[in-house]
Amino acid sequence: MNRLEALAVSALFFALSVGAAGPAGAVAHGIDAPPGTFGFNTQLTATGIPTPDGGTRDSACSGALIAPQWIISAGHCFHDGAGVPVDGPPRYDVVAHVGKTRLQDTGSSASFGGGYTRDVVDVRQSSVNDLALAKLSEPITDIEPIQLPADPPEVGDLVAIDGWGAHSSVDPMPAQHVRLGGFRVREVTDTTVNVAGLLPLRTTSACLFDSGAPYFIPTGLSGGVLVGVENDGPPCPHDQLDTAARVDNQVDWIQAQIQD
Q1: Which among 150, 198, 193, 142 is positioned nearest to 29, based on CA atoms?
Q2: What's the total number of domains in the chain?
Q3: What is the pLDDT of residues 130-147, one digit of tens each?
Q4: DSSP string covering 131-144
Q5: How many CB atoms sit inside 10 A of residue 103's CB?
Q6: Are residues 137 and 254 in the same domain?
Q7: If residue 252 lies in a helix (H) or strand (E), which one and from where to where?
């Protein structure tokens, strides 16, 4: 283990130990993230989603701030009435809560968990995998965005997830408190990164509404290097593999979108 890996492991263990007293919630068998940590975390609330029968429904996803006016999430979080991922303005109302520790928290800064609320006004879908960028109605300038990777992930890498998903696939509900979990990279394909739960339990796993949550290598307790975004997995909690969209092979596309 090199020095960077050692620092990442130390930061993740510290964050997990600080939050370990929290009740079960988002990220199945994860722990409550301490206030002010990893402020790039984003909860997406979608309302009025059209359904094939002519009605509407509500849902939620997770994501991460990647630039002052952009977040990254799963492509399937932004779709039409038939469930097909789409570009452009969302087909329903999507609100991004960035840098919050709990959804009910308020404040002018993420350093104490208050965070910010912004509308999503535009979406750019990747042509490579289940990944999308979403533009915010106004920039956020005092939260450190998650960093783009310079290298591909490797089997054995330790990564964290910071998500707003349910704690179980049985009667799932979006979380009210952002949660952390530790994972090990087990497989890398051309388009995906497959990870297995490790901390605090081997059954730590992504769950419903964690879609789009970042898997990242921590750099201290506020920053991180993005590895992938949550896409899919078995009913949670589980000890099997979760699938994330790779990011390292789309860095040029991401930079072109956020600089456009």
Answers
A1: 198
A2: 2
A3: 999 999 999 999 999 999
A4: -EEEEESS---SS-
A5: 17
A6: yes
A7: helix 251-258
